[in-house]
């Protein structure tokens, strides 16, 4: 059995669930090769944990988790995680799929809110309590690293939640994840929920507190930042915030929020206020590339005004703003475009652009094409450049996606 992960408490653990909860977004299905490409890029980005899928849900998901465990879950790489309901079959499938990984985690969950118990599970609180304990213990017999989630924690009775968490930790959970499954809570409420857990679950010091949240009211990132202030040390998130319904908390927003405002967050992590040490292990210069890759492969477009990675996130349109930025960028920019991997001087492609400029712009957009594909895409680009003065990133993406589909 591998050694359990011992994440340090003074850094925030980034748990990426793009390939599991993100892929649950309507229309975002990915094939195994695409999942592997994204998993490799997530490892370059520096995420601590990749939730690679839900192995029992389909043979395809099982195979994808297994492949990612083998190729990306190598020594020194991220922890590879598989989701499982609290059943023997689910947990065994997750353990089997994760076997090739150097470090693996089983993430098992059961709902705790009365509305889920009454209508979905048709079980009593006592039954849920004992299932949670038994199934965490079973998962623990298969791996040292077990995460437990009380689904719909945001709408659960806190007293019952405390009891379930205490039972899960006693049975061996090393991470307890608190999901706001339907994106219902507000930042103050979510922060208080995490504080309540810290103060009322007697064995909470034996586990990392994690948070997971959906964006139904557009509050997921704000909720997580409040959770960090109150003791959460793992954030579950997706690239571009994709996921069920309105999506999950967006990784790039959380990471840049912690990065840009580190002096604000440092004291909550017990650090000196002016510490420059990074708050996460993320290489922020990989953010833009990862965002483009996920958007291209899932087909989920990023809105132009999306924070951090939207096309307009670093664009200044009004005269007053342009004038200010030319005098000093800090007048209207709180972070620098290079910190997320954008080059300062964006190359504008046109009919005089050569193959190298074309290749390098595609790389920035997350496309690493083989020579043959690149040649074909370059011919298409030249044809278009003859008709248009400037070829935009949208045009380039359309050309490449067309070529990839035809290949
Ligand atoms: O939103 C949710 O509650 C989930 C759990 C499986 C963690 O995705
Ligand atoms: Zn979720």
UniProtKB/TrEMBL annotation:
Catalyzes the condensation of the acetyl group of acetyl-CoA with 3-methyl-2-oxobutanoate (2-ketoisovalerate) to form 3-carboxy-3-hydroxy-4-methylpentanoate (2-isopropylmalate). Transmembrane segments: none annotated. Pathway: Amino-acid biosynthesis; L-leucine biosynthesis; L-leucine from 3-methyl-2-oxobutanoate: step 1/4. Its EC number is 2.3.3.13. Homodimer. The chain holds residues 1 to 407 of 547 of the full protein. Residues 12-279 form the Pyruvate carboxyltransferase domain. Its cofactor is Mn(2+). Mn(2+) binds at residues 21, 212, 214, 248. It comes from Stenomitos frigidus AS-A4. One of its GO terms (molecular function) is 2-isopropylmalate synthase activity. The keyword Transferase applies. The keyword Transcription regulation does not apply. It catalyses: 3-methyl-2-oxobutanoate + acetyl-CoA + H2O = (2S)-2-isopropylmalate + CoA + H(+). Belongs to the alpha-IPM synthase/homocitrate synthase family. LeuA type 1 subfamily. It comes from the Bacteria. Keywords: Acyltransferase, Amino-acid biosynthesis, Branched-chain amino acid biosynthesis, Cytoplasm, Leucine biosynthesis, Manganese, Metal-binding, Transferase. It is an enzyme of class 2 (transferase). This is 2-isopropylmalate synthase.
């Amino acid at each position: 059995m591998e050694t359990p992960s011992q994440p340090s408490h003074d850094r925030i653990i980034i748990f990426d669930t793009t390939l599991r909860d993100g892929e649950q977004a309507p229309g975002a299905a990915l094939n195994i090769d695409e999942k592997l490409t994204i998993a490799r890029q997530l490892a370059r980005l520096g995420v601590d944990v990749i939730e690679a899928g839900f192995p029992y849900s389909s043979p395809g998901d099982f195979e994808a988790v297994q492949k990612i465990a083998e190729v990306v879950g190598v020594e020194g790489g991220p922890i590879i995680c598989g989701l499982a309901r609290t059943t023997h079959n689910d947990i065994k499938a997750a353990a089997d799929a994760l076997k090739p990984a150097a470090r693996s985690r089983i993430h098992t969950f059961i709902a705790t809110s009365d509305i889920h118990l009454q209508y979905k599970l048709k079980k009593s609180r006592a039954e849920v309590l004992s299932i949670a304990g038994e199934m965490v213990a079973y998962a623990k017999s298969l791996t040292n690293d077990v995460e437990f989630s009380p689904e719909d924690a945001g709408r659960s009775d806190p007293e019952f939640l405390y009891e379930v968490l205490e039972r899960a930790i006693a049975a061996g959970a090393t991470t307890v994840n608190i999901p706001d499954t339907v994106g219902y809570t507000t930042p103050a409420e979510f922060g208080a929920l995490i504080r309540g857990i810290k103060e009322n679950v007697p064995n909470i010091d034996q586990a990392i507190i994690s948070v997971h949240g959906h964006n139904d009211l557009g509050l997921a990132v704000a909720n997580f930042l409040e959770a960090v202030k109150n003791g959460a040390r793992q954030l579950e998130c997706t690239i571009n915030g994709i996921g069920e319904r309105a999506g999950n908390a967006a990784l790039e927003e959380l990471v840049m929020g912690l990065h840009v405002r580190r002096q604000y967050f440092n004291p909550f992590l017990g650090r000196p206020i002016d510490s420059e040490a990074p708050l996460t292990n993320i290489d922020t210069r990989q953010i833009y590339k990862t965002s483009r890759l996920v958007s291209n492969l899932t087909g989920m477009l990023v809105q132009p005004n999306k924070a951090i990675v939207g096309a307009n996130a670093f664009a200044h349109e009004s005269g007053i703003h342009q004038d200010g930025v030319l005098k000093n960028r800090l007048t209207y920019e709180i972070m620098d475009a290079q910190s997320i991997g954008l080059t300062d001087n964006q190359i504008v492609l046109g009919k005089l652009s050569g193959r190298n400029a074309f290749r390098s712009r595609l790389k920035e957009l997350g496309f690493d094409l083989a020579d043959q594909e690149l040649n074909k895409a370059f011919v298409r680009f030249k044809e278009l450049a003859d008709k248009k003065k400037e070829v935009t990133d949208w045009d380039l993406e359309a050309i490449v996606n067309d070529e990839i589909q035809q290949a």
